[in-house]
Amino acid sequence: MTFSCRVSLVPATALALALAGCGGSSTEANKDSTTMTTNQAVQKHQVRDLLKAIETGESAPVSVIDPNKYVQHNLGAKDGLAGFGELLAQLPKGSARVNTVRVFQDDDFVFAHTDYNFFGPKIGFDIFRFENGKIVEHWDNLQEKPPTPNPSGHTMTDGLTESNDLDKTESNKRVVRSFVDDILVNGRMEKLAGYYDGDKYIQHNPQIADGLSGLGAALKGMAERGITMKYDRIHRVLGEGNFVLVVSEGTFAGKATAFYDLFRVDNGKIAEHWDTIETIPPKDQWKNNNGKF
């Protein structure tokens, strides 16, 4: 792979990385690494711009979508770029607001955590798959935004936003996958404490307080009210450093449900959690046939 010294209109970070790679003494491996990092910075910026365009109405950011390949997994939108445009056209004029709080990348996938006003206040996770520099596929999960913080005073989006420990991405993904498989899918509660550093655990779910004690109290309360939550299958695990997103399928209160759970890992232990829970509509209400996952 060769590295070009051509400069384009990209964010300052990406531009600096591109210029840094133009020295003749760099090894081929370093060039490849720099190119990948530059591409990732550009693609994250493109995703931020695309999401912001829902609010601003700008058309230029939409050019990052490949109109010939775009596969839509939001079941409320028709497939393809036309379906995306049709959905946006239904928004009341001037009503949309978009504040993307976090953006991470795992190989060809960019995933974002956003505070929306999109047909009402919502918190959402969006996943975009890139192919040859263009977005070709999109998944999301949206939940109504509560008017008040959770019992510990946290909102659904506050907390740390930048990743670190990039060299631990794969090990952190393994930890989180094991946690979801052990605890949420298979109910091996005897293993629960091993995934945490005591009661040091920050929770952003709107109904649950911090710590294992808060989680335990919430689960007990749900059981007393006859509310069941069951994870059946993990569909995708994406990570960047100490942040890992897990996409799962199951049921909540007896309804088919998509669970998106974002975890922050610290020294091999789960330290923080954000999520969105969305009911999957019956298939006869889907506007595309690509499925939620």
TrEMBL record:
SUPFAM superfamilies: NTF2-like. PROSITE patterns: PROKAR_LIPOPROTEIN. It holds the Pfam family SnoaL_2. Coiled coil: none annotated. Residues 151-163 have a biased composition (Polar residues). The keyword Signal applies. This is SnoaL-like domain-containing protein. It comes from Labilithrix luteola. The lineage of its organism: Bacteria, Pseudomonadati, Myxococcota, Polyangia, Polyangiales.
